[in-house]
Amino acid sequence: MTELDQLLAAWASTQRLSMDVAERIRTEIVTPELPANWWPDFASRITDTIVRSSRIPNVTQFLPAA
Amino acid sequence: MNRDERAGRFSSIYDEHRDAVHAYFLGRTSDRDGAPDLVQETFLRVWRRLEELVEVSADRQRAWIFTVARNLTIDVYRSRATAAAALPQVQTPSVAPIHEQPEPQAELTERVAELDKAISGLPEKLRTTLTMHAVGGMNSAEIADALQEPAGTIRYRLSQARRQLADAMGSQA
Hints:
The complex is a heterodimer of chains A (66) and B (173). Chain A has 66 residues and is mainly alpha-helical. Chain A has helices at residues 3-15, 19-30, 38-54. Chain A is rod-shaped. The relative contact order of chain A is 0.05. With 173 residues, chain B is an all-alpha fold. In chain B, α5 (103-120) packs across α8. The relative contact order of chain B is 0.12. The interface between A and B is medium-sized, with 21 and 38 residues.
């Protein structure tokens, strides 16, 4: 192995794609994207939940049975 | 294909070609920081066309992937040409600084930095071929296949690159 081969091997080792970066790229590609309308859907569901939980109960259901 | 199958098929292709594609971008652009973004952009296109790609042979997959990579490089050159008109070029050192390293290690780092500079100064075709070989671990047949060039041309470029580097480094080719 010549000095140039050794230097090239050392140089190449500083240039390779690191495992961290390679995995980050893989994750960013295969991770499912959120649908474009996720925020309005989410906000609407939160609103519905709040409305349901704060609705005034029907008084008649608390009356003693006739 | 469901999502897990797609991810599995994609990972096989990604693991097979990512180092070669990265080395290609490194050679073409000499931009260590920008090369991973181009790798991601290339494989994003692989992900989008996965159903078609899994139907073809590994050689055809490589040819398709490198066609995408070549087209992306052309886009980079175009945007660089536009940016160069507006911004001064900033050269970033691509090898770690040598402060506070033991003497032999500092000497090696210094030699590697010299080599890095010499490689940056190679003509683009020689630099790309050498980088695909040294960094991407590809042999001349694989490089020829990826670049759609005769294997003899690739072997010639590799020997020319080594000769020029040896001259620059005062070393044997």
